[in-house]
Amino acid sequence: MIELFIYKGTGGRWKYNILLESKEPEIDDIINIESPLGKTSNVSFKLSNQFKAYAEFEAFFTPESDSCFGIHPNRGILEPHGRDGTPFVISFSPTEYGAAKVGKLIIQTDDMYWSYAVKGTHP
Fold this sequence. Notes:
By secondary structure, the chain is mainly beta. It has a single domain, classed as Immunoglobulin-like. The protein has strands spanning 2-7, 13-18, 29-34, 41-47, 55-61, 69-72, 75-78, 86-92, 101-108, 113-121. It starts with a strand and ends with a strand.
């Protein structure tokens, strides 16, 4: 809850109570990876900043993601809009049979946030 005050130069004043609610953004894309047990498979893609400037980024899987996923690089500089993009590689190394493994990959800069649902399966 915030209070917004608007002042008019000629003497008026208004007060508004505003309730703001922040929610998790929707997933940007779903990435599927298939790998046999005991082997590692990779999926690569490129991502560029939405602005015409380089930006420092951090890439990571959320804590509730399965530990069989990895991301490289996990820190660096994202290329600006209009360039080829910074390459990312997601690895999937299953160690047991069972249900599909799932993870949520986050790539963020100071100004942008991308999220991907990653699903790992066996052939």
